[in-house]
Amino acid sequence: MKKKQLIILIVAAVLLGGIYFWQNSSRSSDWQGGEGAASEFIMPDFEFEKVYSVRLEKENDDEALTLQRGEKGWGLQERYGYPIDQSSLQTLFMDLLETKVAQRLVLNQEQLEELGLAQGSRLMKLLDKDGKLLGQLRFGRKHERESEMPAMPYGGGGNIPLGRFMELDGGDYILAANTFSRVDDDMKQWLDKEFFKVSDLKKVSLRQAGELLWELSRDSKSADLSLAGEGPPEGKEIDSSKLNAVKNAFSWIRFNDVADPAAEAESIGMDQAKTLQIVDFDDFVYTLQIAALKDGKQHLQVAVSWQGETERQPGEDEKPEDKQRLDSEFAAKLRERQEKAKELKERLSGWTYIVGASSLDSVNVARDDFFKDKPKPVEEDKAEAEKED
């Protein structure tokens, strides 16, 4: 390529870039202020330590959620004070503290509607311990740039979020350099979803009204569970897949929501509850009250305790010089398990959880469900097939 041709191409590219910039500037000049991008924070000098309540609501909409600070930390008021996800709260406050103004805006009513800043938008109110309003922010739609990658079914691609249109306390409109993703979370997303986990199940039993329905146990972590009591009826055999399902039932259980702790037992199916008791190899005891399905919802209550040995029994061949080390290791493990039991008890007791209707299917069963039909002998299958032919 000759030098003259290269110069022409460069000049053409500059001209095209200038035309593109002018077109985009003129297209948005009716809503952008003339100050350009600013560098100030959206909430300079705001005293976040005075905030005791964060209320997120939509105008003309009954649904609202309130993050409330109490003696034991932050909870969700509309969920009876249940603890919220602290990482989400931290993200929200850091966003409010560190986000800067990307562009100041001058908008008319039509543009407010277009940018999602009119009636029905997301409103955040920051309140002190007496309920006095400290500050208020309005969140409009997100500002996005079109991605070159198409949206993918399982994430990735699609538009790239760059910021969010907002109305600051005092009535100033801006484009903020943050999308404030936590602002759009619903109540269930705000709940602290940490639950309980049983990975080394040793013994499990199910009772109803004091009557034992079935019991499973195993002697070691590597062994399979066995069913206590009489063996399979004639023509039946143990279904090992059902036993394995019980063993793994609580290795990854989650809850969806929490119910009113003061709800009457009849209203949530607790009057017909079954009691599932689980003991693991660390001597933790999990007692679950499994309610009968009510209006398609499965309610669950959980109590946890630790019932292990509190004094170490010396081994038969234990040497005197090993005693101090073994005593120290035992004391450390004892303290760890007692603290874990206390933490689980304080976190789970007193709450009624709503779990997936199918999440307890593997344990909320009758004893006969652990049996399956024996496979038919080959000769019998052949005879039946010939008969059908």
Walk me through the topology:
Layout: H1 3-28, E1 53-58, E2 64-70, E3 73-76, E4 82-83, H2 86-98, E5 101-105, H3 109-114, E6 122-127, E7 133-145, E8 160-167, E9 173-176, H4 187-190, E10 201-208, E11 211-217, E12 226-227, E13 236-238, H5 240-247, E14 257-259, H6 265-268, E15 274-280, E16 284-290, E17 298-306, H7 320-348, E18 352-355, E19 371-373, H8 378-388
Antiparallel strand pairs: 1-2, 1-6, 2-3, 3-4, 5-9, 6-7, 7-8, 8-9, 10-11, 10-15, 11-12, 13-19, 14-18, 15-16, 16-17, 17-18
What does the model show?
It is a single chain. 26% of the residues lie in helices and 28% in strands. The chain has helices spanning 3-28, 86-98, 109-114, 187-190, 240-247, 265-268, 320-348, 378-388, and strands spanning 53-58, 64-70, 73-76, 82-83, 101-105, 122-127, 133-145, 160-167, 173-176, 201-208, 211-217, 226-227, 236-238, 257-259, 274-280, 284-290, 298-306, 352-355, 371-373. The strands form 3 sheets. Strands 4-3-2-1-6-7-8-9-5 form a 9-stranded antiparallel sheet, with no helix packed on it. Strands 12-11-10-15-16-17-18-14 form an 8-stranded antiparallel sheet. The N and C termini lie far apart (82 Å).
